[in-house]
Specification:
There is one protein chain. With 328 residues, the chain is α+β, with helices and mostly antiparallel strands. The chain has two domains: 16-228, Immunoglobulin-like (Sandwich); 237-325, Immunoglobulin-like, CATH 2.60.40. It has helices at 2-13, 28-60, 70-103, 217-228, 237-248, 251-254, 288-296, 298-301, 314-325; strands spanning 113-120, 123-129, 135-140, 142-146, 151-157, 162-165, 173-175, 181-185, 191-197, 209-215, 278-279, 284-285. Strand 2 (123-129) and strand 3 (135-140) form a beta hairpin. The protein is elongated.
Length: 328
């Protein structure tokens, strides 16, 4: 019996770690929220022990004969008043602690990396900006940040309410149509952390994830410089033919590939799509096969998304997938 309880306990604790756990914090905001969770848990557990112990003590006492006991009534009055006072103090203390932890969500340095985040059904658009708010480049469903430096996210939604949550780095904050919210991130160590939309936003809400990749300063600068550059030219004949297919189909009307005539804005920027770890907002690992599968039938893989079915021959599909894979 004891062994079974230990196994169950270990299995339950297995869900408290990983790259999407609020209890495995790697940033100041996440640490503040983790401490708040621990405080709530320990305090509530202590109160539960006190109340349960008191009830057991009362049940264990011999029932006295029914009579008026003025001293007992006085003790009961004192106990009730003390309980009310303790409740007020506990609630007030937890409120102050919650307010203090919440303040860390939007506090940061003035020279923080600035990223505009737009949530939409069902993917994330990240626009990196300079100090003058001018756009430098865009990415989709993959946010790179430098380790040890504040990153300020400007959150907004273009359709329904979404909520950005990166449990290991910060608390969640809503993206509300017509309103901007700010959230500050900082990662204390390199790593890959998973983020997720935490507000139900429609059919594919569960498939609206993204990755946060925290890199050393040098690696981050190298990545940012590569992202700001235009798309690389195809390296072989098949990929070159795929570029021609892309420009001749509706793809170019919906997507941007910088350095080409494709300047669409309704879909993700594909300038460096082949270098991303996933496609479809975390749905599939980025491989040539998954790119081909997505292009061939996006509605089967992610029903309800805004990408239409584009008629392609098998040869055009091979060429197009080769071109997409080469965009790094």
């Amino acid at each position: 019996m004891k062994a079974a309880l230990v196994i169950i306990f270990i299995v339950l604790l297995a869900g408290c770690g990983g790259n999407q756990s609020a209890l495995e914090a790697h940033g100041p905001s996440a640490v503040a929220l983790k401490d708040l969770i621990v405080l709530f848990t320990l305090l509530c557990f202590a109160i539960w022990l006190l109340v349960t112990g008191f009830l057991l003590w009362v049940l264990a006492r011999r029932r006295a004969e029914p009579r008026q006991d003025q001293a007992a009534e006085q003790r009961m009055t004192v106990a009730v008043r003390a309980s009310v006072a303790a409740t007020v103090l506990v609630v007030a203390g937890l409120t102050v602690a919650s307010f203090h932890a919440t303040r860390s969500l939007n506090s940061g340095a003035d020279d923080a990396v600035l990223v505009s985040v737009k949530g939409q059904q069902w993917w994330w658009q990240f626009t990196y900006k300079d100090a003058t708010q001018a756009s430098i480049f865009q990415a989709a469903n993959e946010l790179h940040i430098p380790v040890g430096k504040d990153v300020r996210l400007e959150l907004e939604s273009i359709d329904v309410i979404h909520s950005l949550w990166i449990p290991s780095l910060a608390g969640k904050l809503d993206l509300i149509p017509g309103r901007k919210n700010d959230l500050t991130l900082r990662a204390d160590r390199p790593g890959t952390y998973r983020g997720q939309c935490a507000e139900f936003c429609g059919l594919q809400h569960g498939h609206m994830a993204f990755l946060v990749i925290a890199q050393d300063e040098g690696d981050y600068r190298q990545w940012a410089a590569a992202q700001a550059a235009p798309a690389t030219e195809p390296s072989d004949a098949e990929a070159a033919a795929g570029k021609v297919v892309f420009m001749s189909k509706p793809c170019a009307a919906c997507h941007t590939i910088r350095g080409t005539p494709a300047i669409g804005s309704s879909g993700p920027d594909l300038t460096h799509v082949g270098g991303r770890q996933t496609i479809g907002a975390g749905l599939l690992e980025t491989t040539r096969g998954s790119l081909a599968a997505w292009i061939a039938d996006p509605q089967t893989l992610k029903p309800g998304n805004n990408m239409p079915l584009v008629p392609l021959t098998s040869e055009e599909l091979r060429q197009l997938s080769a071109y997409m894979e080469g965009l790094r």
